[in-house]
Amino acid sequence: MEVSNDGAIVVGVDGTEPSERAAQWAARQAAIFGKPLLLVYAMQWPVYTSAHLHAPVGIGAMEPGVTEEPMRRWARDMLEGLAEHCRHTTGVDVHTEIFSGDPADAVILAADRVAFVVVGHSDHGGVAEFLLGSTAQRLARSCPWPVVVVRDEVTVDGRRDEGPVVVGLDGSPVSGRALRFAFGFAARHAAEVVVLHAADGEVTTVVEPVETHDEAVLREDVGPLGAELAACAQRYPGVRHQLMSVPGPAVDGLLSASAEASLLVVGSHGKGAVRRAFMGSVSHAAIDRASCPVAVLSPQTTESDQR
């Protein structure tokens, strides 16, 4: 699953600071990938309000007196203000859509052809952050496109965009998709790919980084996915890569690597020899605890042959 050039980057927004941060991150990616940006807002009933915004955003404390038209008017103003900011700062083509219903469903239904989906996430606590987190987790499990979760720690000025792209492998088919996405993303950012491999669930030894295009060597290190890694290296000859094992539980290695990464890429619900070593529960932990944006690919993620 490479980053597709066929479709928009879709962002789920709700007027909160985490979603605005996600939209700004997505706008930078749209400029880099040469794609349009689609901002999506979902109106839910009963209407809720945000205590810190004093406006209906679908999250927060219930406000029974709010009716549909004022909420829709607020949503249009919020979307257009955010769209104008993204246009001004990045020059990208920005569109907006308002849907009724669940935020995760709205994002999935927003476009037929999508490069990837972006949502915000916060761990500051409270109802708003809980719903933001649950939307991110649901999309990560079931969205047909890659989902990038932008956390609170991510700066909006692009300073973290220069770090490596870190991807976790566990030998499952979905981790192969994660690998292809990581190389495609890194190629656009002129970034290095760091491949973290779990050989036995908990890797107990640290090996020297391996940088090679030799399929035989890669197969010896990571099994069948060595062919996939070799193919990615050949398809993107300008992308430097390192293959590394990490000490301790797989999730600890990924979270540690995320401190210097521009993007962490994982799969969800892996079914490899080391079941869920990097997948499933690890993707959940990455969304909640990583220090950089997290891209999650599920078995439902649509494959694409386009660069």
UniProtKB/TrEMBL annotation:
Q: Can you tell me which family this protein belongs to?
A: Belongs to the universal stress protein A family.
Q: Which SUPFAM superfamilies match?
A: Adenine nucleotide alpha hydrolases-like
User: Which Pfam families does the entry link to?
Assistant: Usp
Q: Supply the InterPro entries for this chain.
A: Rossmann-like_a/b/a_fold, Universal_stress_UspA, UspA
**Any idea what this protein is called?**
Nucleotide-binding universal stress protein, UspA family
Q: Which residues form the UspA domain?
A: 9-151, 164-297
